[in-house]
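hey so i finally got around to running the thing on that chain from the lab meeting. sorry it took forever, my laptop kept dying and i had to restart like 3 times. anyway pasting the input first so we r on the same page abt which one it is
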Amino acid sequence: MKAVVLLSGGLDSAVTAAFARSRGFEVYALTLRYGQRHVIEVVAAERLARSLGAVRHAVVDLDLRGITASALTSDIPVPTGRAAADIGRDIPPTYVPARNTVFLALALAWAETLGSFDLFIGANALDYSGYPDCRPEYLEAFERLAYLATKAGIEGAGKFKIHAPFLQTTKAEIVRTGVRLGVDLAATTSCYQPDAQGAACGACDSCLLRRKAFAEAGVADPTRYR
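ok and heres what got predicted. didnt touch it at all, straight out
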C-alpha cells in the first residue's frame, strides 16, 4: 500500500509518517518549500524522511510569499509569550491563507499519479493554533473534493481517504506515540522563528505547545532552545 504523507519536519507530521509506516503503508513523503521563514524545517524533513524509511521524498518549491500575508511568509511579527489559554482562541497571524488546501492538492496529484488513495496529514484540532484548515469538517470536505476533482474518483478506481490519525489527540499523546514508534523527536523542529543554526525561540505559539506537550507526556524535551 502506498501513501502520500505531508512531512513538514515538525513533530506532528513526523509521528504521522511513522504511524502510516506502522500500518503497513509505503511512505511517499512530500515537503513544501513555500517561502517560510522557518525553512530549516525542510532540512529536518529530509533527515526524517531518511530515518523513517520513506520510499521517496519529494521537496517541491512553491513560493507563496508574493500572494499570501502571514507571519510565516513575510515580515509580520510572530506572536510570542502568549498565555496557553489564548492559543487557539482566534486565528493568529501565523496562519498562511489556504496552505493546507494547496498542500493537500499537491499530495492528491501525486497520490493519483502513484495509484494511491491514501493521504496522511499531521493535522491536530486540540493542541493547535486555531487554523481553520486543521478542523475535521475541513478534511471531510477535502475528501469530497478529491472524489469530484480526479479521474480516479470519477471513474470509480477507488475512494480517496484523508488520514489525520492525531486530529483529536493531545500533543502529549503524539509525543508518547512518537517515542513508542521510535521517531527521532530530536530531529523534528516546531519553531516559527528559529535562528540560523536551527535553535528554537522557545516563545512562539508552536514552541509553547511543544514544550507543554513534552512536559505533559513526561518525556525529556530534546529541543535546542536559544
